């Protein structure tokens, strides 16, 4: 499937700031199920963009804007050819899988999450079956709610509350999988929804390491493994490692954020 993506993120400042610096993870890499046909990243202000790779292999851009700056608009656009590979991700490995057993503050497993993991999947001897059981259990247990959490909400908090967004579903999956000694990592990206080109935000899901299969994707927010409708951007131990945009500014000001995201098949875009 050929997908066309346009994603604009605009930061507005109540008073012009003296400077701003941001780390951008908005550029995808190719792998066996994803070919980058075209991709660009631009900003409307006088800024330097420096391209690098982080230690996960994510493509990053560091943006530095010297003030005064009253807003920063970031626009990414491109086309990607995707293929359904049954959720199996190959061609992106950098660390040994054991690295992804590490717990982070956002992906801690308390007694409640450990009990859930054991009750849902502990009796299953196959890690693939265990991961599918965790995905289905989280999907059934949590309610999707865009107002319930924020970027700093921890897995323990979201699990106790019983609701959250895809980020929270993913953090809980990571905590539960690692509690069962299944290496798992966070993925940020995009999800194409046929008939719903305009979207409010990107998407997040998980990948777990399953024996001879390697890395397999699991999306607990939708209870499916990734298909050709998924575009993979960045990975990490949790959201903070794979966040599309993270940064700070210098000056006495308040920040407001606007996001515009359009994801459609290239055939629909040409119609």
Overall description:
21% of the residues lie in helices and 44% in strands. It has 271 residues and is an alpha+beta fold. Strands 1, 2, 3, 4, 9, 13 and 14 form a 7-stranded antiparallel beta sheet that branches. It has a 5-stranded antiparallel beta sheet with strand order 5-11-10-8-12. α1 crosses α2 and α2 runs antiparallel to α4. The longest helix is centred in the middle third of the chain and has 15 residues. The protein is globular.
> N-to-C SSE series?
EEEEEHHEHEHEEEEEHEEH
Low-confidence segments, given as residue ranges, are none
Q: Estimate percent helicity.
A: 10-25%
Distance between the termini: 16 Å
Rough shape? globular
Q: Counting H and I runs of at least 4 residues, what is the number of helices?
A: 6
Largest sheet: 7 strands, antiparallel
Average of pLDDT: 93
Number of strands: 14
Q: What is the top-level CATH class of the largest domain?
A: Alpha Beta
Number of domains: 2
Here the CATH topology of the largest domain equals C8orf32 fold
Strand content: 35-45%
Task: Summarize, please.
The chain is α+β, with helices and mostly antiparallel strands and 271 residues long.
Chain-wise SSE layout:
Blueprint: E1 2-27, E2 34-43, E3 47-53, E4 59-82, E5 88-89, H1 111-122, H2 127-141, E6 143-144, H3 155-161, E7 163-164, H4 166-179, E8 184-191, E9 198-199, E10 203-210, E11 214-218, E12 230-236, H5 239-242, E13 245-250, E14 255-265, H6 266-270
Parallel strand pairs: 6-7
Antiparallel strand pairs: 1-4, 1-13, 1-14, 2-4, 3-4, 5-11, 8-10, 8-12, 9-14, 10-11
